[in-house]
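Lecture 7, part 2: worked example. A protein chain together with guanosine-5'-monophosphate.
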Amino acid sequence: MTDCIFCQIAAKKLSAKIEYEDQEIIAFDDIAPKAPIHILIIPKKHLESVNHLKAVDSKLVGKLVLAAQKIAKEKKIDRSGYRLVFNTGPDSGQIVPHLHLHLLGGGKL
Ligand code: 5GP
Ligand code: ZN
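Predicted complex, written out as structure tokens:
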């Protein structure tokens, strides 16, 4: 989706501080961090939200969580703790309609 900002970040058409990348997913610093460490982990393929996941996406979702675990360890917040969040739909405050996992940590939340 060319008008999706996270698809543009995944395609390197929009810049972001990339923390992790492989063939299927990319992780980058949130532009407006709500914690000392605030990283967004997304699938490169456009999926709107948790509501749009299908059984075929289950491995991909697992990869997002395992990437969060790996980044948390690299950032040395695996022992102090962190929060993982998938905002889904209007009441959650989801503003970007491309599935993303928030990794928040580095201080008391
Ligand atoms: P949501 O509220 O949809 O779950 O979270 C979207 C997040 O994306 C917000 O925390 C917001 O700060 C972040 N964000 C929005 N636009 C951009 C952008 O262009 N670049 C980056 N790196 N983060 C963004
Ligand atoms: Zn997208």
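The longest strand covers residues 37-43. The chain has a mean pLDDT of 97. Keep this in mind for problem set question 3.
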